[in-house]
Design a protein that fits this description.
This is Molybdopterin biosynthesis protein MoeB. By secondary structure, the protein is an alpha/beta fold. 30% of the residues lie in helices and 15% in strands. It is globular.
Length: 212
């Protein structure tokens, strides 16, 4: 049953540096809602990228525990809408939010982005593991040759399928789920993770072959 429309949502607090660092030390989940292009350029280690887009609530419902608190990284003007979307699916453990990751005294990290040429060269490379994180029916409808199927929402249950010796290239349809998946893998301390943000949309638009 759908939850009733929330006309008023509680205002979540803006956390100061000391508050945020204390929660981070306590291993509170950090949800970075910025778009994938910003996230890959620089983010807080162990943070989870769930971009604020149309599917935000769906993605959050898959990935966040309903009984564990979390912090948002978001623009101030977006926090009410984000909180509303989260509360409507029962995720009401938002401690607070921050807007700027550069003033925390934390060394940010980036995610390596690869282009279509790198993906093409990785198809027959034994040192590369191509991972398609779309849904199974999308994968079966055509995927990059040699890619394995690991649906983004089930990644943490299937970490054993990730080859620790290989460089991982993650892709989806339009790049958002690939960024989410890459952040999940890095949160689970998987190394050598790269993301193909162009993903299948670019691959197909460039006339590249797929296998079924």
């Amino acid at each position: 049953m759908d939850r009733p429309l929330l006309l008023h949502v509680p205002e979540i607090p803006l956390l100061n540096k000391e508050q945020f660092l204390k929660y981070k030390q306590d291993a509170v989940t950090i949800v970075d809602t910025r778009q994938k292009e910003l996230f890959v350029k620089g983010h807080i280690p162990q943070s989870l990228n769930i971009p604020h887009k149309k599917s935000f609530a769906t993605w959050a419902g898959w990935l966040l525990a309903y009984d564990r608190p979390f912090i948002l990284i978001a623009a101030a003007h977006e926090t009410e809408e984000l909180t509303r979307k989260l509360m409507r699916i029962g995720l009401d453990n938002v401690i607070g939010y921050i807007t700027n990751i550069d003033d925390l005294g934390i060394q940010v990290e980036s995610t390596k982005v690869v282009d279509i040429a790198a993906v093409k060269s990785g198809i027959n490379n034994p040192d590369i593991q191509l991972i398609d994180v779309r849904n199974t029916n999308e994968y079966q409808g055509g995927h990059i040759k040699g890619a394995i199927s690991l649906m983004w929402g089930n990644l943490e249950k299937n970490l054993s399928a990730i080859d620790p010796q290989k460089t991982k290239i993650i892709y989806c349809q339009g790049g958002d789920r690939a960024s989410i998946a890459a952040s999940l893998l890095k949160k689970n301390e998987v190394e050598n993770v790269k993301v193909y943000l162009g993903s299948m949309n670019e691959w197909l638009s460039q006339g590249q072959e797929v296998e079924f």
